[in-house]
């Protein structure tokens, strides 16, 4: 297959992530240019478009996808809008980088999975960017060598400075822990089979009514136990850490103190304040990898199956949070397309 010259990309949703992906395509990565911007808020799309030469602005994703200079799509609208955007992209036979979540629940994720199977080939890469983070990639490579033996346990910590307005207790799971669900499945190569959620008395930092922090336990079909501390109003920084405990050793990522200073009777470093800062390189690598693969006519990276599997784990986790106890994950059989 001949490589496409420069990929024309439509970005759907020009909020925090969409605008950052536009900047990345314009200024950081190679092989693509932004040819269309879509937002239900036309003024927002126009203000991002003001920084891009020669792109069209739309309020309807399907209108942008019909344009001849759109070869591929980045979906960065909120989760509930993803299914419609993905199905429209399938109709126009366009490859998609879809921000997480694939869709907000397992039933809609299954509909997307079925629609992609009808196409008979993969079209979607899901935006689980931790798979492109240098530290997580190193950890994955180490585990693959087998030198530490079999992974027994995975400990995760995921802390955000403050939750955005309008957050609910369920969003700690659906918006944030989705990443640990993907990391667990990807690092260990196991499916998550059951979830338990515990929550201490909420932090005084948390808005009224939000159960923050939470502590989740995953069981996997490979016999591993995984825990996740999610704390989205910790106040002091954005921290994402993971430690794998194996038969013959442990490996840990996310301590991330790039520079340590010693001055005036103190030593220390700084902590990133959000994901845009902490995962900047990962987002760059994710989008560059997607552009390169798309230009070769390939689809790589986290698949629709991965997005669906995470949606199914989220559903079990939300039930465990609301009702207590251990909730099994209900997963359909993995289709051959995602073998
Ligand atoms: N991979 C990661 O680390 C992160 C991923 N995300 C994901 O990125 C997506 C966007 O999140 P943010 O940028 O934080 O949200 P945001 O609220 O800043 O931006 C969303 C934009 O989409 C627009 N929009 C809403 N419905 C739309 C529709 N039907 N069609 C087109 N545009 C529509 C809104 O007007 C808004 O401008 C979400 O899926 C979110 O989960 C968000 C933060 C980090
Ligand atoms: O995906 C993300 C956000 O939506 C979510 O709200 C944050 O908690 C995560 O750390 C970030 O990566």
Brief account:
It contains ten helices and 15 strands.
Would you kindly provide a written description of the structure presented here, covering whatever features stand out?
The protein is an alpha/beta fold and 339 residues long. It has two domains: 7-129 and 281-303, Rossmann fold (3-Layer(aba) Sandwich), CATH 3.40.50; 131-276 and 310-338, Dihydrodipicolinate Reductase, domain 2 (2-Layer Sandwich), CATH 3.30.360.10. Helix content is 36%, strand content 24%. Helix 2 (42-49) links the parallel strand 2 (32-38) and strand 3 (56-58). The chain is globular and about 55 Å long. The chain starts with 6 loop residues before the first strand and ends in an 11-residue tail after the last strand. The protein binds 1,4-dihydronicotinamide adenine dinucleotide and (2R,3S,4s,5R,6S)-2,3,4,5,6-pentahydroxycyclohexanone. Residues 160, 175-176, 179, 232, 275 line the site of (2R,3S,4s,5R,6S)-2,3,4,5,6-pentahydroxycyclohexanone.
Quickly give the structural class: alpha/beta
Query: What are the low-pLDDT stretches, counting only 5+ consecutive residues below 50?
Result: none
Superfamily (CATH H level) name of the largest domain: Dihydrodipicolinate Reductase, domain 2
CATH class of the largest domain: Alpha Beta
Radius of gyration (CA) equals 20 Å
Residue-averaged pLDDT, rounded? Answer: 96
Number of helices: 10
Q: Specify the CATH architecture of the largest domain.
A: 2-Layer Sandwich
Could you name the CATH topology of the largest domain?
Answer: Dihydrodipicolinate Reductase, domain 2
Distance between the termini: 23 Å
Largest sheet: 7 strands, mixed
Shape label: globular
Number of strands: 15
Q: What is the spatial order of strands in the main beta sheet?
A: 12-11-7-10-9-8-15
Q: Tell me what portion of residues adopts beta-strand conformation.
A: 15-25%
Helical residue percent band: 25-40%
Count of separate structural domains:
2
String of helices and strands: EHEHEHEHEHEHEHEEEEEEEHHHE
- Ligand list: 1,4-dihydronicotinamide adenine dinucleotide, (2R,3S,4s,5R,6S)-2,3,4,5,6-pentahydroxycyclohexanone
Catalytic activity: myo-inositol + NAD(+) = scyllo-inosose + NADH + H(+)
Pfam family, one: GFO_IDH_MocA_C
Protein name: Inositol 2-dehydrogenase
InterPro entries: Gfo-Idh-MocA_inositol_DH, Gfo/Idh/MocA-like_OxRdtase_C, Gfo/Idh/MocA-like_OxRdtase_N, MI/DCI_dehydrogenase, NAD(P)-bd_dom_sf
